[in-house]
Amino acid sequence: MLSRDDDNFEKVPLEELAPDAETYLGLVAYLQLEVFEASSIAVANSPDISSKEALTRMAKLTLDKHEAFVAEIRRKKRAPERLMEPFTPTIDAYIARISSDDWHEQVLSVYLISGLFDAFFSELADGMPGNLAKYAKDVLADDTGRAQVATLLQQEIAANDGLADRLALWGRRLVGDSLLVCRAALVSTPNDRSDDGAIEPVLSELIATHIRRMDDLGLTA
Amino acid sequence: MLSRDDDNFEKVPLEELAPDAETYLGLVAYLQLEVFEASSIAVANSPDISSKEALTRMAKLTLDKHEAFVAEIRRKKRAPERLMEPFTPTIDAYIARISSDDWHEQVLSVYLISGLFDAFFSELADGMPGNLAKYAKDVLADDTGRAQVATLLQQEIAANDGLADRLALWGRRLVGDSLLVCRAALVSTPNDRSDDGAIEPVLSELIATHIRRMDDLGLTA
Asked: Can you tell me the ipTM of this complex?
């Protein structure tokens, strides 16, 4: 029975909802790999070399994060492929859903979803055992090159009539699909609390940060 | 007047044909960026996660090389975009010519052309002033992950009837287009020797190494 009384709707610390370390590592490693792929598609479609450079840094950032998690999996003597494999259907379907032929939408996707997932997995990391919590938070905190991509987006929005409206719409679409991935990270684990409302405040916070990111770009979320 | 006598066909050291440092840096930086893009397309098209991992290392390798040359351009207080810009028409056209919808061809392309260009620019580096020669050779010598891509190709060739023939054909096609890029690197510079036959032995050597790489994969060049 789900009670929606305020008293029962307090925020549960995200670490209480966290999956086990192997699930966490496999999921975050594969997600970074897929965000890297999305970034490199945006690199390849760049209309000029300075936007290409900004996006290349974003590709490097996500690739470095992927490699850092793969290295951690190897240190735990597990095969990275085996830990990532279970998440390929969910994540591949997600990436396919948010893919676009439009370069501006590609850039916005990479910028917003990398921010959203880095924040989400950084909070989840608090529930990780031993040194993994600090290690994961350190890896995810790196934001080298993100400011340049924000600047690139702001310039494009200023230079292209109608782009702000289109990207605002795209940003709203992204958040729904991305939150489904976050939810998937929290279910099917021994701590599964997906049915008791504990997840909702976590997702609300992610949405709030997403909206702030869109505001900073001059987009109405 | 071009004499084809053996005496006049001795190998000229490649450094004598080398372009100036800025041309060299802009060209090698942009080429690595484009090989990175080709690698990441191969990553995105990987049918399974272990081939994806092998190709991700290749993407990282080429991206690291690109970034190393960009860093060197910045140390020389030049804008990377400005030094790379002049080569975008040639290289973009080249990448378009060697692009393929077939994943195996994508993987072979990345493997062979990165090897060919690393060898070529490493030799050219001998003609670079100051510390640049050693710096460039060190950057280009990194071959982390290449062995895994070779293994991946060998496994695919063994597992797929007819693939060896198709890739052999593809490898032969690649070499011609790639040598045109090398030739472009040697012309339009104060040292332009493109008309006196001095370039031919250089290109012959590149072809020989390319053939060895194909042999190692079990492909008839």
From this structure: 0.77
